[in-house]
Amino acid sequence: MIALPTDDRPRLRWQQRVTYVDTDAAQVVHHASYLRYFEIARIEFLRAHGWDYAAWLAREQLGLPVAENWVKYRSPARFDDLLTVETWVAKATRASIRWEYLITRGAQRLTEGFTVTPCTTLDGAIRRVPRELLAVVLGATFDPSSV
User: Residue 99, class by beta-carbon neighbours within 10 Å (0-12 exposed, 13-18 middle, 19+ buried)?
Assistant: First the structure.
């Protein structure tokens, strides 16, 4: 089970209205739509904390592609539900970032998951996650001596 962080690391709470295109024939959110919600949450997290991902990608020719996803579906979301997607970085190493997510509808936990994103060149070669990015995603929990 994904647990909300208890320290003061940066987090983002973002709201997503379920659109019809996100659902199946029964108007239940399709399982793959949650991965899109995770992706949006990662980019919005970076934006909210002052990191312009598009500019960094263009300037440095580096990115954070998805290497691993894990999702636990607890209860379905439906067309027109207002969801809260909460995201934070649970762990960051020299070469990758592990993002965690909790999706709720009101007080009900619907979906949780994580994504691992290595730092790579646009050709896929692994690179070190920039210290400046680690400082953004970990906030006060960032220990510069650990990288």
Answer: buried
Number of domains, the chain: 1
Q: Classify residue 5: in a domain, yes or no.
A: no
- Domain holding 31, by residue range, is 11-139
The CATH number of residue 85's host domain is 3.10.129.10
Q: What is the pLDDT along the chain (147 residues), one digit of tens a residue?
A: 899 999 999 999 999 999 999 999 999 999 999 999 999 999 999 999 999 999 999 999 999 999 999 999 999 999 999 999 999 999 999 999 999 999 999 999 999 999 999 999 999 999 999 999 999 999 999 988 777
Catalytic sites, residue numbers: 24
pTM over 0.70: yes
